[in-house]
Design a protein that fits this description.
3 helices, about 45% helix, about 110 residues, about 20% strand, four-stranded mixed β-sheet, alpha/beta, elongated, single chain
Length: about 110
């Protein structure tokens, strides 16, 4: 539950912090920017709910409905699950899964 709250808090603060910004490069309208921010937030929230995906290690960026995943996973299963979750989010046009699989170091 703490993982979910931390991730949702981070996603919400990111959205709120970026809502006053201008449209970024590559986005044609403020509406597109808001849509992309909403998609990113939804993907991160679904990661936080999923027991196989560590939302804190995986970065999510969205541009024109295309979700770019990066960061690190501990297995191919986690990487694949993250991509699957992102594809299931409404309004996602495509997913680029650039997550690197790296065994955890303890």
């Amino acid at each position: 539950m703490n993982k979910l709250l931390i991730t949702l808090g981070f996603a919400l603060s990111t959205c709120l912090g970026m809502s006053a910004c201008a449209v970024t490069s590559g986005q044609s309208t403020v509406g597109q920017y808001v849509d992309d921010t909403t998609i990113t937030t939804r993907v991160k929230a679904r990661f936080a709910k999923d027991k196989q995906v560590d939302a804190m290690r995986i970065n999510v960026e969205t541009l024109k409905g295309v979700v770019d995943l990066s960061g690190f996973a501990v297995s191919e299963t986690e990487k694949g699950r993250a991509g699957q979750i992102a594809k299931e989010v409404p309004d996602v046009k495509d997913v680029r899964n650039n997550i690197i699989v790296r065994a955890p170091t303890h």
